[in-house]
């Protein structure tokens, strides 16, 4: 408790530093997009690099699949405990200051992972990485939503959402190679460096944009959190977008967490080679998909808002079964090819979903919205590996560790169909809900919302 109070006090003091933009700070939307995408990418690297280290960490500490998956659940603890308070602060204080502080904190915590002397210490360090993320990441989307108008946010936030696929490539390929050539501890230490550099760049060179400058009628008053909850969880379209994307995130985190392990167990690949395949599959197809979906949404969405939900919904409906089919292939080449196709289809939802939700929000709701979503996605991201690991351990009793893991991953792939159903539900209500939120912030009256 004392630790949380000290951390909270430090955040408040840091965020309360003078907010005047120095002469070195630029108001270029594209510079902001590049720097904040870099920050998000580094954050994803520091989060996902542990996935390629599952096998060496298991070996050093003698863990099961279920136990090692707890490194993912560690993030959820911070999202729940600190995320909302940090986001409410970001609605009032200079967001770039919080972004730079959070980036520095999670980078130091990543380095601490490499210095951990026990399994418990490693878990505590991972909680520290999560703490830095909940402080530093909620403001990213809010800043970019103030730099770009609504008609360009689909593409802008899709570029921001390149962070997961690019981060996955660097984390899996770079992390796997470093761990193979040196050790898993060195991987964490090296992964900490870029974040420290970017934290300084974000603070010194990116200007804080005026809130709501592209949203006519936006005031300076910060709406109560009840109004945020109303728009996010009571509006039918937003609620279904949240549920669908949370399910997709849960399945994706679980599959990515154990894909390198599957390559090692099923095909007897070295850690570096397995990391290379995982990184390539998790990066290029997903990057192309995220940008393509954002671009299609900006093209078709203004005339037909339902497109913002129909595009990712259709892709998830097809991509999930393809992933399940891929996992059962006995040939490595065919498996990798099919998983690449499935990855393209299953990750396009990222940018377009965030852009659509941001368009449904008041400008002074956006950081809080991201924090609330991070709580949801943090829990989903922790549950995904945990549930898949539990299924893997259960199936391994009769099928062995390799086939048991493959069975668990195939079932998880099929579950993407569940996520797609919520996108189709969201599409039915999206046009009406977008029209509804053009007026001032509504009273949080659930009875006013239509049922899904």
TrEMBL record:
It is found in: Membrane. It comes from the Bacteria. The keyword Cell cycle does not apply. Its main location: membrane. It is a multi-pass membrane protein. The chain crosses the membrane at residues 30-50, 70-89, 96-117, 123-143, 155-178, 184-206, 241-264, 276-295, 307-328, 334-357, 369-392, 404-426. InterPro entries: MFS, MFS_dom, MFS_spinster-like, MFS_trans_sf. The keyword Nucleus does not apply. Keywords: Membrane, Transmembrane, Transmembrane helix, Transport. It holds the Pfam family MFS_1. Residues 32-430 form the Major facilitator superfamily (MFS) profile domain. This is MFS transporter. The lineage of its organism: Bacteria, Pseudomonadati, Pseudomonadota, Alphaproteobacteria, Sphingomonadales.
């Amino acid at each position: 408790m004392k630790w949380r109070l000290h951390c909270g006090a430090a955040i408040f003091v840091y965020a309360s530093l003078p907010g005047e933009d120095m002469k070195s700070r630029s108001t270029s939307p594209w510079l902001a997009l590049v720097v904040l995408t870099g920050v998000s990418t580094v954050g994803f690297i520091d989060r996902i690099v542990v996935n390629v280290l599952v096998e060496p960490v298991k070996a050093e500490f003698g863990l099961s699949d279920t136990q090692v998956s707890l490194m993912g659940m560690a993030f959820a603890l911070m999202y729940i405990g600190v995320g909302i308070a940090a986001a409410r602060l970001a609605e009032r204080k200079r967001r770039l200051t919080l972004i730079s502080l959070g980036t520095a904190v999670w980078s130091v915590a990543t380095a601490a992972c490499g210095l951990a002397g026990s399994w418990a210490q490693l878990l505590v360090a991972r909680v520290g990485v999560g703490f830095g993320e909940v402080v530093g990441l909620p403001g990213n989307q809010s800043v970019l939503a103030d730099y770009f108008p609504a008609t360009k946010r689909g593409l802008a936030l899709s570029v921001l959402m390149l962070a997961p696929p690019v981060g996955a490539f660097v984390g899996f390929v770079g992390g796997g190679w470093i761990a193979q050539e040196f050790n898993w501890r060195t991987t964490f230490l090296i992964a900490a460096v870029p974040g420290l550099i970017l934290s300084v760049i974000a603070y010194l060179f990116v200007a804080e944009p005026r809130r709501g400058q592209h949203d006519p009628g936006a005031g300076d008053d910060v709406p109560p959190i009840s109004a945020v909850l109303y728009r996010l969880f009571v509006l039918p379209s937003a609620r279904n977008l949240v549920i669908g994307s949370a399910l997709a995130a849960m399945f994706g985190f679980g599959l990515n967490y154990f894909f390198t392990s599957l390559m090692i167990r099923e095909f007897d690949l070295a850690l570096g080679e397995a990391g290379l395949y995982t990184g390539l599959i998790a990066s290029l197809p997903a990057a192309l998909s995220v940008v393509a979906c954002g671009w299609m949404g900006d093209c078709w969405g203004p005339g037909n808002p339902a497109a913002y939900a129909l595009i990712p919904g259709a892709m998830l409906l097809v991509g999930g079964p393809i992933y399940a089919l891929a996992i059962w292939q006995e040939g490595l080449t065919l498996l990798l090819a099919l998983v690449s196709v499935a990855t393209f289809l299953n990750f396009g939802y990222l940018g377009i979903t965030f852009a659509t939700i941001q368009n449904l929000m008041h400008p002074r709701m956006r950081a809080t919205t991201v924090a609330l979503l991070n709580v949801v996605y943090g829990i989903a991201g922790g549950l995904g590996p945990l549930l898949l690991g539990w299924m893997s351990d259960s199936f391994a009793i009769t099928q062995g560790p390799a086939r048991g893991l493959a069975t668990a991953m195939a079932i998880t792939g099929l579950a993407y169909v569940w996520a797609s159903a919520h996108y189709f539900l969201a599409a039915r209500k999206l046009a009406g809900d977008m029209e509804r939120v053009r007026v001032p912030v509504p009273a949080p009256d659930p009875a006013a919302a239509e049922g899904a």
